[in-house]
From TrEMBL:
InterPro entries in alphabetical order: DUF7134, HATPase_C_sf, HATPase_dom, His_kinase_dom, Sensor_HK_TwoCompSys, Sig_transdc_His_kin_sub3_dim/P
EC number: 2.7.13.3
Organism this protein belongs to: Streptomyces misionensis
GO MF term (any one): protein dimerization activity
Residue stretches making up the Histidine kinase domain: 307-399
Pfam families reported for this sequence: DUF7134, HATPase_c, HisKA_3
Source taxonomy: Bacteria, Bacillati, Actinomycetota, Actinomycetes, Kitasatosporales
Signal peptide (residue range): none
Keyword Ribosomal protein included in the entry's annotation: no
Coiled coil regions, renumbered to chain: 158-192
Name of the protein: histidine kinase
Catalysed conversion reaction: ATP + protein L-histidine = ADP + protein N-phospho-L-histidine
């Protein structure tokens, strides 16, 4: 059934042509039966010709609504002039009035409305009802005008409804495009921010390597020349790597200047204690526990862990409510670092985590997933069953390949 419906929607002219043939057959049969009766004076050939033209209007109404309206009006005037009485085929007048009101140009719709109110009075003047009083003829005119008016009103309502749905579809498509664009901008901005932070971490480590290599070259005068050459090579390679990295990522640092021209290392896991003390000082009770044996971790992993805790606690302060509390768990595994941040507050809607970051420059879950993905980890975030929000992450010691 659905296939038939889809087929009919794809071939509207074919459907109209079918009904036009049916209307033409009914009209011809009706005219043939009326021939020879005293009340019917129209010749069969003229009636058939008028019926054929009006049925053509029905067949082509959706392809050429305005021209078919003019053809229908001309045919109606020809009926009046040639004294060809109304027949079954004049039903096409109702059809074209509805069609033009639905999809025709504004001028055509107004013309169809005027013609709808004029058709019945003109027909009654041309072929007055016998043995009917003046009031009776007025009643006949009113009765015959109602179908024309209803056809036009129904068509105009359909036009309004279609325009409304088109606006809704256009608005939905525009909003979808805007969401996609905002999502792409958010991802690009977050990646740029992460790249800047990772750049600082790597630059700091390379700077330390350069300083150590330079110091070794100066103090190890008694070492063999081969060792001195190796240390000088380390220094040279480190300087070249640092310069190249600054050149490649310089666009990400446009407008930013480090104080004194020195790079400052980014936060690590040890500074989470300071972060939690700041949160407690601002009125947010935080329970902090460390499980496992703490040990040095890769700089990228430590930075990611710090930023996730910072993002989660900031959102708890913003959306958890005045009585919210939070807990932070760090678990050192043999092959990675586990994070669990929970709060018992109101529970920020998940879309807030998707749309806004901790300091306005990130994008919540988008930024967290980007950070975790860059170190090859996994992230799980969502509302807690008893209220509040939970964020858990597993950061491996080695990035995934």
């Amino acid at each position: 059934m659905q296939r038939l419906y889809d087929f009919l929607r794809r071939h509207p002219t074919g459907v109209d042509s079918f009904w036009a043939v049916v209307l033409f057959g009914l009209s011809v049969l009706s005219e043939a039966n009326l021939q020879g009766t005293p009340a019917h004076r129209a010749p069969l050939a003229g009636a058939v010709a008028v019926s054929a033209v009006l049925c053509l209007v029905v067949a082509l109404r959706r392809r050429f609504p305005e021209p078919m309206l003019l053809v229908a009006l001309a045919t109606g005037l020809a009926q009046l002039v040639l004294d060809l009485e109304t027949s079954v085929a004049d039903f096409a007048m109702l059809v074209i009035a509805y069609t033009v009101a639905t999809m025709g140009a504004p001028w055509a719709s107004r013309l169809a409305l005027v013609a709808s109110f004029c058709a019945a009075p003109m027909a009654q003047l041309r072929w007055p009802a016998e043995h009917a009083s003046f009031l009776g003829r007025l009643a006949i005119v009113a009765f015959q005008t109602v179908p024309f008016a209803l056809a036009w009103v129904l068509g105009d309502s359909m036009r309004t409804r279609r325009a409304y749905f088109e606006q809704l579809e256009e608005r939905a498509a525009r909003l979808e495009q805007e969401r996609e664009a905002q999502s792409k901008v958010a991802v690009a901005a977050e990646r740029a921010r992460i790249a800047r932070e990772l750049h600082d971490v790597v630059a700091h480590n390379v700077s330390v390597m350069v300083v150590q290599a330079d110091g070794a070259a100066y103090v190890m005068d008694t070492a063999p020349d081969q060792a001195r050459t190796a240390l000088e090579t380390i220094s040279s390679t480190g300087r070249q790597a640092l310069a190249e990295m600054r050149r490649l990522l310089g666009v990400l640092r446009t407008g930013e200047h480090q104080e004194g021209g020195e790079y400052v290392p980014q936060p690590d896991v040890e500074q989470i204690d300071e972060l939690i003390e700041q949160c407690r000082g601002s009125g947010l009770p935080v329970d902090f526990k460390v499980e496992g044996t703490p040990r040095p971790l890769p700089s990228g992993v430590e930075l990611t862990a710090y930023r996730i805790v910072q993002e989660a606690l900031t959102n708890t302060r913003k959306h958890g409510g005045p009585n919210a509390g939070a807990s932070v768990r760090l678990v050192y595994f043999d092959d990675g670092l586990g994070l669990l941040v929970e709060d018992d507050g109101n529970g920020a809607p998940q879309e807030l985590y998707e749309e806004g970051g901790a300091d306005g420059s990130g994008h919540g879950l988008i930024g967290m997933r980007e950070r975790v993905g860059m170190v090859g980890g996994t992230l799980d975030a969502g509302p807690r069953p008893g209220g509040g929000f939970r964020i858990s992450a597993l950061l491996p010691l080695k990035p995934a390949h």
